[in-house]
Amino acid sequence: MRLVLERFSSGPESTLGLLFLDGAFQCFCCEDESRKVKVPGKTRIPPGEYHIAVRTEGGFHARYSQRFPDFHKGMLHVLDVPGFEWVLIHVGNTHEDTAGCLLVGAGAQAYLEGGGHILSSVPGYKALYGKVFDAALARRLTIEIVERDTAKGNLT
Question: What is the longest distance spanned by two Cα atoms in the chain?
Fold first, then answer.
C-alpha cells in the first residue's frame, strides 16, 4: 500500500499537501515550513520515500488510546527520516500542532502568503487510519513525499 504526499503550498510557517492512497485522493496534510538548515520541531521532513510502521509506546499512543478507544491500536510512525525522530501522522490543525510530524484532515485552508492549516482533522485522521493501519502493522505501507510547491518559508 502506498501513500503519496504532494506538497502544493509553502509559507513562512507551514506547508499544505494532498495525500493520495494508492493513487486516489485521501485527505489534506499540514506540516512545518521548509528550511535549508533543520530546526528541531520547526522543519518539515525532506522529500523522499519512507516506510510507515505502528508505534505502540510514547505519549501520543497513550493519549490516543484514551481519546480514540474504539479504533486506536498504535500511532502511524514514519520511519528512518534523516535527522528526525518519532515522525508521526496525527490530528492537528496548524503548524503549532506539529513538531515535524504530518497532520491530516478532511479539509484545508490555504493562506495568501503560502502554507495554511487543516480543517476537520479528526474525521480525516479516522478515515485514513482505518484504511492503512493493517498495512502499517504488517510494514507494507510506504509514503513518498513530493515537492510540487515553491517553498516561500524560512530558507535559512
Answer: 43
Q: Which residue has the cell 484532515?
A: 105
Using one digit for the tens of pLDDT, what is the confidence trace for 30-79?
Answer: 999 988 888 888 889 999 999 999 999 999 999 999 999 999 999 999 99
Task: Tell whether 117 is covered by a domain.
Answer: yes
40 part of a folded domain: yes
The grid cell for 42 is 520547526
7 occurs within a structural domain = yes
> Is 6 a member of any domain?
yes
Per-residue model confidence as pLDDT tens digits over 96-114: 999 889 999 999 999 988 8
The tally of domains found in the chain comes to 1
In the numeric block, the cell 499540514 is attached to 30
128 near 5, Cβ under 8 Å?
A: no
Query: What contacts 131, CB < 8 A, 6 or more positions away?
Result: 21, 26
What is the DSSP annotation of 1-13? -EEEEEEEEE-SS
Range of the domain at 101: 2-147
Q: CA–CA separation, 43 vs 4, rounded Å?
A: 19
**DSSP assigned state of 77:** E
